[in-house]
Design brief:
- 32% of the residues lie in helices and 15% in strands.
- The chain has helices spanning 28-37, 52-62, 87-101, 139-151, 165-174, 193-201, 231-240, 244-254, 266-272, 283-288; strands at residues 4-6, 12-14, 18-19, 42-44, 75-80, 106-111, 155-161, 181-185, 205-209, 258-259, 300-303, 306-309.
- Strand 11 and strand 12 (306-309) form a beta hairpin.
- 41% of the residues are buried.
Length: 323
């Protein structure tokens, strides 16, 4: 039974991890502790999520000799935010994350987005019209600064998040430390087949965020489809005696794609666990055929009370390319 993927660094990454996006302040510590208690060994974090201090408290209390989990059993991922792309800002940003997580070394550090924002203390620097102020720093410059973190022993592996195939190749063209992981939105409505094949051909494993469709995203539109209520998903859940969430996660497991559902409800923990104890055969095609190339996670901003896509005008916006 395969429960992990092997990174090119030799590290094992569990196929199911705890996503912490949209985590609720004041509840994260208890959730992480509970996740560790039921077997989660992969925690996905980001500086931008604002929850790393609480996660660090949970890790300090529950990780180490004689505690719930040993450090070497756990994979902890975090991400460099867009305002920290200047090479001189990269290590201080990581050091802050390490301090918040109360760790000496991070297992995996991702560049959160290819687009750089202006150097500011606020995460979303904007002009007078509410539009993001971007910076000219190219992600290839940022990547070289990230590589220095590996040389210093502060990070075990590096990766990318929300990069397209062309941008991945761009990084590979300058990399002395190759990216080990690409993290992107991925679920049956956005199967990412071509991008996954491209990653695997170049030695990157893929992590799927929002694998359940993220119907609780802030800009959710009630007219949009709800993946967990799709008739095909519901029929398979009934056939196998599983939950819709288990069906969606099992589909990813059989594709060797890591999933990090945002599991901030106890019921989700229960439904995420047994995905390794049943198998799809012809049903994989039924789920594959749900693909619509439909993104539910296109970052949005509000201007004058209305939502609009955040980065589509930026030349480095990753979703301007087909994949």
């Amino acid at each position: 039974m395969t429960t992990c993927v092997l990174l090119h660094t030799g590290q094992k990454m569990p196929l199911i991890g705890l996503g912490t996006w949209k985590s609720e302040s004041g509840q994260v510590k208890a959730v992480v502790k509970y996740a560790l208690s039921i077997g989660y060994r992969h925690i996905d974090c980001a500086a931008m999520y604002g929850s790393e201090t609480e996660i660090g408290e949970a890790l300090k209390e529950n990780m180490g000799p004689g505690k719930m989990v040993l450090r070497e059993e756990l994979v902890v991922t975090s991400k460099l935010w867009n305002t920290k792309h200047h090479p001189e800002d990269v290590e201080p940003a990581l050091q802050k994350t390490l301090a918040n997580l109360q760790l000496e070394c991070l297992d995996l550090y991702l560049m959160h987005w290819p687009c750089a924002f202006e150097q500011r203390d606020t995460p979303f620097p904007k002009n007078a019209y509410g539009i993001i102020r971007y910076d000219s720093t190219h992600y290839k410059e940022t990547w070289k600064a990230l590589e220095a973190l590996v040389a210093k022993g502060l990070v075990r592996a590096l990766g990318l998040s929300n990069f397209n195939n062309r941008q991945i190749d761009d990084v590979l063209s300058v990399a002395s430390v190759r990216p080990a992981v690409l993290q992107v939105e991925c679920h049956p409505y956005l199967a990412q087949k071509e991008l996954i094949a491209h990653c695997h051909a170049h030695g990157l494993e893929v992590t799927a965020y929002s694998p359940l469709g993220s119907s609780d995203r802030p800009w959710w539109d009630p007219d949009e489809p709800v993946l967990l209520e799709d008739p095909v998903v519901l029929a398979l859940a009934e056939k196998y005696g599983r939950s819709p969430a288990q069906v969606l996660l099992r589909w990813q497991v059989q594709r060797k794609v890591v999933s990090i559902p945002e599991s901030f409800r106890t019921s989700r923990y229960v439904s995420d666990g047994p995905v390794f104890y049943f198998t799809f055969s012809p049903e994989m095609k039924q789920l594959d055929d749900l693909n619509k190339n439909w993104r539910c996670i296109v970052p949005m901003l509000t201007v004058e009370g209305k939502w609009f896509p955040r980065d589509v005008g930026n030349p480095l916006h990753p979703f301007n390319d087909p994949y």
